[in-house]
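Example complex used in Figure S2.
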Amino acid sequence: MSEKIVLIDGHSILNRAFYGVPDLTNSEGMHTNAVYGFLNIMFKILDTEKPEYLTVAFDVKKPTFRHEMFKEYKGTRKPMPEELRQQVPVIQDVLEAMGITIVKRQGFEADDILGTIAKMAEAEGKEVTLVSGDRDLLQLATKNIKISIPKTKKGGSEVEEYHTEDVIEKYGVTPVQIIDMKGLMGDTADNIPGVAGVGEKTAVKILKAFPSVEEAYEHIEEVEPKRARELLRAGKDMAFLSKKLATIKTDCELDYSIKDAKLENIFTSEAFEWIKKLELKSLVKKFDSEAMNKAVERPKNFKYLKKKIEVKRFADELIKDAPEVVGVSFFGDEWSNSGVTKKKNKKKSGGQMAFVFDDISAVSLEDESDSTNEYLFLGLSLSYEKNGEYETVSILKNDETDGDFLIETYKKIQKKIPHIALIDWKNELHLTAVAENLSEDREAPLQMAFDDSDLDRLFNKISDVSIAAYLINPLKDSYGADDIARDYLDMTIPSYSERFGKSRLSEIVSEIDDDYLRESADEEKNVVINNLLEYTGELSYVAVAGYKNLESTLEKTGMIKLYREVEMPTAYFLYQMERVGVKADIAVLEQLAKKLDRKIIELESDIYDLAGEEFNINSPKQLGVILFEKMKLPFAKKTKTGYSTSADILEKLKKEDPIISKILDYRQFTKLKSTYAEGLAVFIENDKRIHGKFNQMITATGRISSTEPNLQNIPIRMEMGREFRKVFKAKDGFVFLDADYSQIELRVLADMSEDEHLIQAYKNGDDIHRSTASKVFHTPFDEVTDLQRRNAKAVNFGIVYGISAFGLSQDLGTTRKEADEIIKKYFATYPAIKAFLDEKVEEAKETGYSYTKFGRRRPVPEIKSSNFMQRSFGERIAMNSPIQGTAADIIKIAMIKVARKLKEEKLKSRIVLQVHDELLVETSVDEIEKVKEILISNMQSAAELKVPLIAEVEQGDDWFEAH
DNA sequence: GACTTCACG
DNA sequence: ACGTACGTGAAGTCA
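Predicted assembly (963 residues):
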């Protein structure tokens, strides 16, 4: 058996993959579909061919000789779409990471390179498989050179294969004659002109009689039919030029030798990194665990301390050495007390955060006495530089080295070390609190582990690399140790799930704990122990090794101030807010649930009666069939995977049939019951409070998000739903003060756009929507109608969202044309706003980012898309993000100012919720006036805008009353 | 796990 | 011609 070589036409296959695979992007907005398709095709070919050698050829985007000759023909070609162009260097990097030989040579076309190598290989007696998406290469087919053309058909891909005889069978000419064919008939795809008037039929006829174009012209008198003869005569120059253009060269001078293209293991760890970065999850399986775990470069010098005395000695020495910075990680599990499976964050994929979020349907492991503990502390790791190298020490919590002891040790170290680097400080604060057994007193969440007597000092001392990475790119979906290592240390470390699968860290620890202490572990256990300790060590190692790079990037991008003065304090006060929680009255919740239940049951039977049968009302699919097929209601308006039954569609059908309003009510009530009545109940802990999470590293714009449960979407707009705000109560001796900003986003717009009209209106304290209506519709201020005001309000919202005529028309219930008119009038009235929005779009196009007033940035990759819809989306993002993001910055600043003031004044009042433009403060009755003043003054002075920043405060015993 | 729907700012 | 408002999270259905 002779050896095999596979040659791939890089651009052609990438192109085919791009158009054959639906658009895919990773979490950063990188397009990956072409890369994904390319790799799939390549893997499939390698699987079937099992070659010894592999080479991929690419064109270089510079005019080559052959390009030069017919660039006037190729000049008409459409440029490559941006989404594809981005992927060209990526696939080359991936292939390189796989150790695959890539040939791209200035001055040569990929076709010519492939032709040359194919002939070279054939001459060496090898079997050649040439993979390309188009048929240009068929001329190279011989009995040793096979042309493979992958076809992307639904339900899997097929490959068309051509040796000499296959070409003859299909085209009626030999491979070599394909060149002559093209000389005669041309090739529209390649813009080869051919002889005018000669098509496939004639060309084949001629080439049946004469083996080549040259011979046909030599015996031109014998060419039949006569018409063809005349055409040939007229187009002689074209025929020869075309043939030349169509000829693939096989004698290029390449600095290439086949033995260098020897195919080795392509599933390298470098390639695995790429696959993870691109988030091509289905390809991950192809990499064996060896490739996954074999690091390019791995942290080393791991130590594990077990005895108290060892730890003490270590701490003393560390303090004596006094490194500038130490990486620290408190590790453990987050856990739930409710016995109910908590929902995980939807947005997680490849990497995970340092701690495991897993369900706890199983009986809790230990420590049942204190079921209010949300977190389980398991140990501590420290990492620092010594003699030019990093050393890392892990200590598991055990009977000797218990929580108190470890906290004491850490406190000692922290006091003497100027700088601490860590991953996800907020999480770590929770774990230190647990380690200290602060759980008894959650309302005084001042932890011993961190000296918070001087907050400025604290915020400057701590570096949270996760937050830094979020600021640098807020589009990622996780900022765990593995992510930081990959993105900033150029290092591969396994993610949590790669190491431990779905097990919780506490399970791993309890498995090995005793043996680890006794040093009596067998081989197998040692693997587990090492795995665990490596993992825990990496948490602090990555923090200390990565923080410099991250912080210098923050400096370069102008975000260091935002990081130090906004994000780090935010992390700290969010921790405090989570720890304090908000009181929830389960009795109110149960009452509401009962009320809803009664209504739901009633509605349900009414709906069945009206429909004439029972069905699942919650199934849009079944509902659609009932409404639009069985009941034949008109306007089965929208479809995607069926009929749309969304509220705005149903709303329009209300007068058609009484069933519609019943369904709308049913929807509303079941939503309230499942999401709020039942949903909230499971989160009420033993202290009668809900300790939701406020995530700082989720949103693209800088807002905070709320989960488990989401406390930022408690109903308010509908009467019935609004009742749920009565669940949230201030504890005894306290009331709620609820402070919210008035139209913060529009005020930010006024400030950033510097529009005089808007600024003046705000300075006057005018009703802003009325003012807009008055100006846009040329109506005296006092004569503005309700409709005009409503329309103006919708436009103001639209502006903030990144206006589009269609979106506005949807909202107003008018035509696109009318909406367009209104927008035109608006921009005529407020030219500075128009200029501002245009400028933001331009800026995003030029820099790739949107920026807030405080320097926070958001990448907008969509804005360069060749797809109209995507690009428009990018433009709206570019208009909205600076506004929404700046408002988010402002409320973060306000929150920090308020929380600091409460602390400085040693008040008992605490912020318990943040809802984007609102702060809810559980206020001690004796502090009401003071806190009111603190809220208003600090919120209003959070930013210097060109318009007044207004905050309004209300008071109540529950959230219903206070808002 | 994708898709719909709907709660909030 | 394209088919939408910006930013989130949770629950339910269905394959």
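The longest strand of chain A covers residues 375-386. Chain A has five domains: 4-171+248-278, 298-580, 585-682, 683-755+881-963, 761-880.
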